[in-house]
Design a protein that fits this description.
The chain is of the alpha+beta class and 297 residues long. The chain contains 10 helices and 11 strands. It has 2 domains: 157 residues, Ribosomal Protein S5, domain 2; 130 residues, Alpha-Beta Plaits (2-Layer Sandwich). Helix 3 packs antiparallel against helix 4.
């Protein structure tokens, strides 16, 4: 039996739309065993599809086909702490798990670059699958069928506060809210800040994040879909967060906090969630960066 662990991820990080992402210390696992048929269960009580349409199973089957190997079925046991449809990379975690699990069962015919490119092909964009596979902060470009990704380990000086609501927001709905065209001014606004964002992480100049994470391409259109979202932004800003942004397509909102100030931030943020009815449907979670990425354990 092969077991795989995959971290949650947060894509975009404000200005880095569809190109930047980072990995967080929350993990799904999947145990794989070759089996004559389909046997898929969840060991933590989370509902998962038990049919061949299960994303992990479907992805693993694609790996067998890619490698030219016969496929008869799998037994898969999942744990799923990463909440689904919350903007924390649950689908990317399934894709990464399916590829790594199948690749391990087959003896490792796929190399890292093959895995990353195949995962991006299945997901459609690399901003979640790249940090899920590599860990850390990752900038990616998808060019002519190939993925180019660079990773930077995230220093322990920052901590992440995830405000996770009790409702889902499907990526399709969040993408449908975006305009089909943007102005030259908005494009330049994001290009300059995305470049600064990458440099800030690479140089560990987290003091630049308040400017670097600003966005004009997607968040203003998605925030109305997140009930209480504006209040969360205001709360985090008032408590001194370095940056706050919609995680992926939402509805989770992620704040970056200096680790030295994190205890006070979380104490005050939790008190606000408990006292403000507008924020009552959010729960607060504390994460650090995962700098390893998906792995066979």
């Amino acid at each position: 039996m092969v077991k795989v662990s995959v971290p949650a991820t947060s894509a975009n990080i404000g200005s880095g739309f569809d190109s930047c992402g980072l990995a967080l210390s929350l993990y799904n696992t999947a145990a794989f065993e070759e089996f004559d048929g389909v046997d898929i269960t969840s060991s933590d009580g989370t509902f998962v599809p038990s049919t061949p349409g299960n994303l992990i199973y479907r992805t693993a089957k694609e790996v067998y086909a890619l490698c030219g190997r016969p496929f008869h079925g799998l037994r898969i046991v999942q744990t799923n702490p990463i909440p689904m449809a919350r903007g924390l990379g649950s689908s990317s975690a399934c894709i990464a798990a399916g590829i790594l699990g199948a690749n391990a069962l087959l003896g490792g015919p796929l190399e890292e670059k093959d895995i990353l490119t195949f995962a991006t092909k299945l997901e459609g964009h690399p901003d979640n699958v790249a940090p899920a596979l590599l860990g850390g902060f990752v900038v990616s470009a998808y060019d002519e069928g190939h993925v180019y990704s660079l990773k930077k380990t995230i220093a322990p000086g920052i901590t992440f506060a995830a405000f996770i609501p009790d409702f889902k927001l499907l990526t399709e709905k969040a993408r449908a809210a975006l305009p089909k065209m943007v102005s030259h001014a908005d494009a330049v606004y994001n290009l300059s800040r995305a470049a600064l964002l990458a440099t800030a992480f690479c140089e560990e100049r987290y003091d630049f994040l308040p400017v670097a994470a600003k966005d004009s391409l997607h968040q203003q259109y998605r925030l109305p879909l997140i009930e209480g979202g504006e209040a969360v932004f205001a709360l985090a800003d008032g408590l001194g967060a370095l940056a706050t942004f919609i995680s992926g397509a939402g509805p989770t909102i992620l704040s970056v906090v200096r680790t030295a100030e994190a205890n006070v931030f979380f104490e005050r943020a939790q008190a606000a969630l408990e006292s403000d009815e507008e924020l009552a449907h959010f729960t607060l979670h504390r994460f650090v960066a995962d700098n390893v990425g998906a792995k066979v354990v």
